[in-house]
Structures are given as structure tokens and as C-alpha cells.
Here is the input.
Amino acid sequence: MKTSRWLLVFTLLASAVHAETIEMTVNGLVCGFCAQGIQKTLRKNPATQEVLVSLENRLVAILTQEGADIPDADLRKALTDAGYDVKSIERTQRSMEELRSTLKVKK
Amino acid sequence: MKMLPGRLALSTAFLSVAACTSAVAKPIAFADGTTVMAEYGAGTMTEFQAFYAPTFRYSLGGGHLSLNSAVNDATRDITYFRVNYLPKRWNFESAQANVFVWGGLGRAHIGETGDDQLSWNAGGQLDYETRRVYASLRTDYHDASAFSHRIDTLQLGVAPYEHDYETLAIWFVIQAREYTGDLFDGTEWAALVRLFKHNAWLEAGATREGKLQAMLMFNF
Here is the structure.
């Protein structure tokens, strides 16, 4: 019983500091320059570890630094200021590798 | 202005493009982005441009345009400062359309007389693109006391496959261009292949007269 309680505490702590993936559906993504501009904008945020853009899936995904998050309002502002429209924002535990594999995006 | 058959064709094509929403290629690539471009236009025009965009709405920079008439001996060398502005953008699910306008001042060297004159320029662009088709209509006007020239360019492009950010984009493009002010007689047609990946863009082809038409662009 004591062991399982410690296991639960450890799991909660681990998930609290785990890097999170933010997946955004974005309108207007049609060319490489769009992707380049969005990557440049989002990489300026210190909470960003990695950015993935898939034109095919209208997806912009951000892997955050461990324990960090970017508020929805900041994400919407960043994308709007870059010239695009954010349709939805979702936080998932999918890794970038998993996303690349699922979306067939090359590294 | 006399209405040439080619001009009518350009106008009709423009109206068709405008009717199906609007028409691509951009003087503002992205916020905090720098665009450097060089174009060789079949011997009639050669242009270099460099712009920095503080936001996606506008960019500042300059360029140099050399015009060599295919009709007479007239030559113009125009060095200019320009502001580009994006008053309207439409972001669709799988498409984007833009309206750009620009204007600026410069110095023009008139080859025939050797005079240097103050010049001004203005222009605009309508564009529409998906990952399979694109269309753009662009007009560039340059004026000084000794001349006025307008260069109208229509491009229609089709991609054989839908590219993504990490894949090479290939486009097959038909270009129609008209010059006013005795620079070229009629419509100059060109067939082009455009390749781009990441921040580099290369477009090359030939006009119906067999002359090279090419453009290089980098965004960073």
C-alpha cells in the first residue's frame, strides 16, 4: 500500500515536470515561407523547445521545455501577429517523434 | 492608353482570377523576416530588391531596376526606396489570399540623355494560393519627368503534388507580362519552373522569344 502511494506521488511529480506538446490547428498554412515565419516567431519564446509545422495537416506543434507552458492567449497572439488564424489549441502528450511518424513529416 | 489584344487578355484573365476569390508571391514574407530577390526579365528588365518586415503587415527596403527597351534604345536605371503594405489577408482552411500595395521614391538615370531625375513608384499585387494552384497579378509603376512605365505581370501556377515544409516544392508557371512606355511591344509570355524549399526560391524558364526569365529569392 505504502509502495503504491509513493508510486502515485512519483507519477504525479513526473507528469508535472514532463515536457508538453501543444498542437494548434491553423488556417492559411499554404507554403514553406508560412512555416518558416511561424517557426521563427515561436522559437523566440523561452518556453519553446521544438516547433513542428505540417502544411498537410494545418498543424503547428510546440514541444515545451520541461515544466513550462505557453498560455493560449500568448499562442493566439503569436500566430495572429505572424499573420495566421488559430482555429484550435490542444495539449497532448504526443512526442515530436510520434507526431512526425503519424503525420509523415520529415525531420 | 491603347487597348492591345494582349492587354485585353490580361484584363480578362485578371477578372477571372478575381472572380474565383482573388489571386501569390510576396513582398512581405513574414514578421521579422528579410527578403532578398533578384530577377532577370528576358533582357527587358533586371531588378534587385531587399526588404525587412518588422511585422507581417509591412516591410521597408529598396531596390534597383534596369529597363532596356526592346523597341528602341531607351534605358533607365532606377534606384529606389520602397514601403510595402499588406492591407488585407484572407486565411482559409487550405488557402491564402493577399492584397499588397507599395510605393516609394528614387533616382532614375536616363540612358539616352544621361540625365538623373527624381522618380517615384507605386504598385500592388493580388494573390491567391493553395498547395496545388496559385495565381498572382502584380502591377509596378515608375514615373519621372522624362518617362512613365508600368509593368503588369500575371502568373498562374500549378503544382504536380502538394508539398510540405520539409519537401521540395515544384511549380509549373505561365507568366504574361506587359510593359508600357515603348519598352516591349505586346504581351511577353513565359513558361517557368519554380522550385522552393525552406528559405530559398528559384524560378527559371524562357519567353516565347527564347529569352531567359529567372528569379532568385531568399527569406531569412
Chain B touches chain A at residues 24, 26, 29-33, 55-56, 86, 89-96, 129-131, 162-167, 169, 196-199, 219 (CB under 8 Å).
